C-alpha cells in the first residue's frame, strides 16, 4: 500500500512538471479556460480572448495559415493608413477583426473597440528602400482587446515561412538591405510584450491604458477601392456595420496626407509624419510627455509645445550641442531632424528618435522634416525662450 501511494505521488509530480505543448502564458495572467486549437476551420474567438498561443495559426484568422497578407476570414478586413509608422522600410499588411457591434467613432483618440477585437500587422522587408515589393516576411503582431484591456503578442516567422511563433521576450534578427545604393547590415528587433506597451501605453486619469496607434479617424480618412469602387474608408466601414457614430459631414474631419505626396502642403505632410511616428509617445500621458513636446497633427504648429524654440528634456544636444527641438527657418540647428538621424547601433541609444522600431535611417522623411523647418519664417529662439 505504501509503495502504491509513493508511485501515485511521483506520477502526479511528473504531470505537474510537463510543459504545455499548445500555449505560452505571460507571467501573472489568469489560467486560460480553453486550449489553443490546432488549425481551426474558423476564427477562434474564445481562444483570442484568453490564450497566448504558441502558433499564430491557432487563432484561425486567415484562410491560409502561411499567408497573413491577404484573405482574412470574415469579418476580417484590410485597412490602410494615409501615412504609416516607419519600421526599417518594412512593407506592412494591416487587418482589423471586429465582433458584432463594431467600433465607436472618436474624433481625436483611437476608436473604441468592443472586447474580442483584433488588430493584425505583418512586417515584410524589401531588398532596398526603393523596392516596390517585399518578400522577406519577418513578423506578425497581434493587438487583442481582452476583458481587461489590450494585449500585444509578437510572432516571428520560421525560415520556411510556414508558421509564426510567439516570442514573448522579443527577437533580434540580422538583416541586410540596400539604402540609397549603400548596403546595410543591421539587427532587426522584434518587440517584446513589454516593448509593445512602451509605444501603446497612455496614462489617463491616473490609470495606464494600452491603446491602438493608427486606428484614429485622421489616419483612416482616405479613399480606398471597395468592390471596384473608390470610396471613403470610414464610410465603407460604416456601411459594413463596423463603425458607429461617424459624423455625417466627412469633409469636416481631418485627413492626414500621404507624406510622399508633393502635391499636398509641406506642413501637412510633415506634421502627419510626426503624428503617426511620434505622437503616441509625445502626447499628454504618453511615454514622452515629460518632454513637454506634443506632436499630434491637430495642434497649432507654431507653438512652444509643438517644439518651436523648446529646449529638450533629458537630452544634452548630442555632438552638435543643439539647444532647441525646432529652430524655425533653420533645420541644421534643430534637434528633431538631428535625432531622427541618430542610431542606437552607432552609439546613440539615448539620442535616437523614435527609440524603438528603427535600425536604419528613414532618409526621405528626415529630408521632409528638414524642408518643413527650413520653410518656416526664421525666428531667433534665444530671444523668445530663455
Please give the structural blueprint.
Elements lengths: L1 H16 L27 H6 L26 E2 L12 E7 L5 E2 L13 E8 L10 E11 L2 E9 L6 E3 L4 E9 L2 E9 L2 H8 E4 L2 E4 L6 H4 L2 E4 L2 E4 H7 L3 E2 L21 H13 L56 H6 L22 H12 L6 H4 L2
Parallel strand pairs: 3-14
Antiparallel strand pairs: 1-2, 2-4, 4-5, 5-6, 6-7, 8-9, 10-11, 12-13
Helix pairs in contact: 6-8
In terms of quaternary structure, the protein is single chain
Count of domains: 2
Question: Uncertain spans, ≥5 residues at pLDDT below 50?
Answer: 1-34
For the CA atoms, what is the radius of gyration?
A: 23 Å
Mean pLDDT value:
85
Tell me the series of helices and strands, N- to C-terminal: HHEEEEEEEEEHEEHEEHEHHHH
Largest sheet: 6 strands, antiparallel
- Amount of beta strand: 15-25%
Number of strands: 14
CA-based shape: globular
Tally of alpha and pi helices: 9
Structural class determined from secondary elements: alpha+beta
Q: Summarize the amount of helix as a percent range.
A: 10-25%
Strand order of the largest sheet: 1-2-4-5-6-7
Instruction: Tell me the span between the first and last alpha carbons.
Output: 86 Å
Overview of this protein structure:
The protein has 386 residues and is an alpha+beta fold. The chain folds into 2 domains: 211 residues, no CATH class; 127 residues, no CATH class. The chain has a 6-stranded antiparallel β-sheet with strand order 1-2-4-5-6-7. The chain has a two-stranded parallel ribbon with strand order 3-14. It has a two-stranded antiparallel sheet with strand order 8-9. Helix 6 packs across helix 8. The relative contact order is 0.10.
Amino acid at each position: 500500500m505504501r509503495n502504491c501511494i509513493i508511485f501515485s505521488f511521483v506520477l502526479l509530480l511528473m504531470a505537474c512538471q510537463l510543459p504545455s505543448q499548445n500555449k505560452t502564458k505571460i507571467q501573472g495572467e489568469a489560467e486560460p479556460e480553453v486550449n489553443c486549437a490546432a488549425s481551426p476551420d474558423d476564427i477562434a474567438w474564445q481562444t483570442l480572448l484568453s490564450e497566448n498561443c504558441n502558433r499564430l495559426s491557432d487563432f484561425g484568422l486567415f484562410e491560409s495559415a502561411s499567408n497573413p497578407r491577404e484573405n482574412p476570414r470574415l469579418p476580417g478586413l484590410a485597412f490602410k493608413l494615409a501615412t504609416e509608422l516607419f519600421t526599417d522600410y518594412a512593407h506592412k499588411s494591416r487587418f482589423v477583426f471586429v465582433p458584432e457591434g463594431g467600433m465607436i467613432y472618436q474624433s481625436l483618440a483611437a476608436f473604441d473597440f468592443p472586447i474580442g477585437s483584433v488588430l493584425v500587422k505583418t512586417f515584410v522587408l524589401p531588398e532596398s528602400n526603393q523596392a516596390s515589393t517585399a518578400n522577406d516576411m519577418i513578423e506578425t503582431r497581434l493587438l487583442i482587446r481582452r476583458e481587461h484591456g489590450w494585449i500585444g503578442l509578437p510572432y516571428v516567422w520560421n525560415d520556411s515561412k510556414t508558421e509564426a511563433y510567439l516570442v514573448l521576450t522579443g527577437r533580434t534578427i540580422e538583416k541586410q538591405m540596400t539604402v540609397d545604393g549603400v548596403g546595410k547590415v543591421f539587427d532587426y528587433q522584434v518587440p517584446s510584450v513589454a516593448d509593445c506597451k512602451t509605444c501603446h501605453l497612455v496614462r489617463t486619469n491616473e490609470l495606464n491604458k494600452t491603446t491602438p496607434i493608427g486606428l484614429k479617424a485622421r489616419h483612416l480618412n482616405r479613399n480606398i477601392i471597395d468592390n471596384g469602387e473608390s470610396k471613403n474608408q470610414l464610410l465603407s466601414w460604416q456601411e459594413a456595420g463596423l463603425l458607429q457614430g461617424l459624423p455625417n459631414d466627412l469633409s469636416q474631419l481631418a485627413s492626414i496626407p500621404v507624406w510622399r505626396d508633393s502635391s499636398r502642403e509641406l506642413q501637412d505632410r510633415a506634421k502627419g509624419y510626426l503624428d503617426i511616428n511620434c505622437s503616441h509617445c509625445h502626447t499628454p500621458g504618453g511615454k514622452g510627455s515629460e518632454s513637454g513636446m506634443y506632436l499630434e497633427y491637430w495642434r497649432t504648429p507654431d507653438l512652444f509645445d509643438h517644439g518651436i524654440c523648446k529646449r529638450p528634456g533629458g537630452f544634452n544636444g548630442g555632438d552638435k550641442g543643439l539647444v532647441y527641438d525646432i529652430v524655425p527657418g533653420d533645420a541644421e540647428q534643430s534637434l528633431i531632424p538631428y535625432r531622427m538621424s541618430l542610431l542606437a547601433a552607432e552609439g546613440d541609444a539615448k539620442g535616437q528618435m523614435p527609440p524603438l522600431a528603427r535600425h536604419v535611417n528613414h532618409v526621405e522623411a528626415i529630408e521632409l522634416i528638414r524642408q518643413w523647418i527650413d520653410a518656416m519664417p526664421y525666428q531667433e529662439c534665444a530671444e523668445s525662450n530663455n
